[in-house]
Amino acid sequence: MTARVFIPRDAAALSVGADAVAEAVAVEAARRGVSLDIVRTGSRGLLWLEPLVEVAAADDPRHAFGPVAPEDVPRLFDAGFPAPDADDPLALGPTEAIPYLRDQTRLTFARCGAVDPLSLEDYRAHGGGDGVARALTMTPAEICQAVTDSGLRGRGGAGFPAGIKWDTVRQAPGAPKYIACNADEGDSGTFADRMILEGDPFLLIEGMAIAALATGATEGFIYLRSEYPHARDTLRAALRIAEEQGWLGERIHGSDHTFRIHLRLGAGSYVCGEETAMLESLEGRRGQVRAKPPLPAHEGLFGKPTVVNNVLTLCAAPFVLAHGAEAYAAHGVGRSQGTQPFQLAGNIRRGGLVEAPFGITLRTLIEDFGGGTRSGRPVRAVQVGGPLGAYLPTDALDVPATYEALAEAGAMLGHGGIVVFDDTVDMAAMARFAMEFCAIESCGKCTPCRIGSQRGVEVIDRIVARRDREANRALLEDLCMVMTDGSLCAMGGLTPLPVQSALRHFPEDFHRQAAAE
Amino acid sequence: MVDRAPWAEDRARAILAAYRAEPGALLPMLHALQETFGCIDAEAVPLLAEVLNLSRAEVHGVVTFYHVFRRTRPGRHVVKVCRAEACQAVGAESLLDHVRRSLAVEDGGTTADGAFTLQVVYCLGNCALGPSVMVDETVHGRVTPARFDAVAAIHRDREDAA
Q1: Residue A306 contacts B, CB cutoff 8 Å
Q2: Which terminal residue of chain A has fewer beta carbons within 10 Å of its beta carbon, N or C?
């Protein structure tokens, strides 16, 4: 069998030259008359090692090299590439034995980076499709019950139990019903949705089909942010293949169920990641938040019962169905069951995707997996859960990453993004940025968010400029309270979280000018 | 390269026809128009209103709500520099300053030679390998000022060669 070489075409890998490496491998192989198959995969998520090149002869375990530059390729071939070579400085040994990957619990991301994302055959060969096959033998109520029993909660940030949401839609009167997948991954520090869409798109298609079977939905929409052209292309191709193979369309998998998926692109609006704003956008309107109730489960897309789930929630469902609720619930702690794909980002030495059971501490993630900062300077602040998440100081990192423990620490998990800053960060500037971002991205519907964020920028500027500091600090606290309690959605409601946490944990940064004078 | 065809109503009508059966078709239609014309021309607004049976105000409201939709033609390449938190943690602000100086444009502006339009964006999903810059649809990671200049030079050279 011809040796295979695996090179990602994930956007992160491409951003550091994976295409040039693939081309160099092809050119060098042709020049030397070496026969090999180049398989373009998603990313394993060991992003600091990208472009990560893997080799495998026949069914041998894969060996990895990375980060590979095009100029390394002739040297690798000199030493016998694509045979594994333990002596090259870029050799990483068997991929699955790399501690960063070995120490993870990959339920959702099991295939990501290992398979050809657009090969349904590869997908099947690696366990794909077992979840929907099982779901087809169950009643809708049984599927909802299994998801409820698994403890799976919404991975977009709100953490609502997925099975209960599905069951609400199942029981809601009205047709057609919709599955609306939120792939508007706008939080800075998050890229898990993008990785799975580029690396294992059939998983989402399977997850949405399971949700459709559970609820009686016949139409699905994927709302993908427009900043992800690679995910868009992969998803488009995957949807076409799924239709051709009878995984989507009429009588899916030979059953009596009809389920179609439409891919829709966002247009650069952060607030469209909020579920009701997303529904408005899907309906062709400004992405303005709707008041709840009615819940989308009762009156969602086009006024019909709608499941709105994040990509990762839907992508966890196939495992739950294929392996049983208990197998999923066996991971995690308390009411945070299963695994969470954490994303290590910002100023971090070993950035990437770490899927681990809930309960792992932030310190383990940042220090053991992440290896501290990329700059080599001390970690000073960590923002968990995107631009609306709290900034934590280093002495708060022993908190276990669960919905409950983070809430208790005044923080939130969000979509699992962890952004690390070193000691050069100016936390007053970051607090100001949180307000500025809210002002730019506010949908404008409610006043606390639309106007409050603008005033927030100004008040922080006055504090930093030492103008009537105590009065302005009190004013900022008051403003944050109004935004928290008075905003219609999480955009205005959570923007105070980064602001107040920065004030609480890093007050000295708001006094810098004073110290300098 | 960004497609920037001059406005042509018959061409626009043909593009929109493909989406008429779609529920909530306005965003897909706007994307399709911008893909061809490089922006949403003023003439597109009454046309969309007619095709979708909306008021012009409603269409205008949607066009202006979303950051992606432009109302003037961009340069031949669109440069998006990320200034979200993860990229800020690795120097996005100073990179952005450099890009502004290097291209001699303000945010949203187009270079004098029409080669580049600069846009500031919030997250390209490349948060472990920042700072990130997207040129047209290609993402570049760990971008230093020197690397940005090299990427810009490659695009200008390609144009000169063509």
Answers
A1: no
A2: C
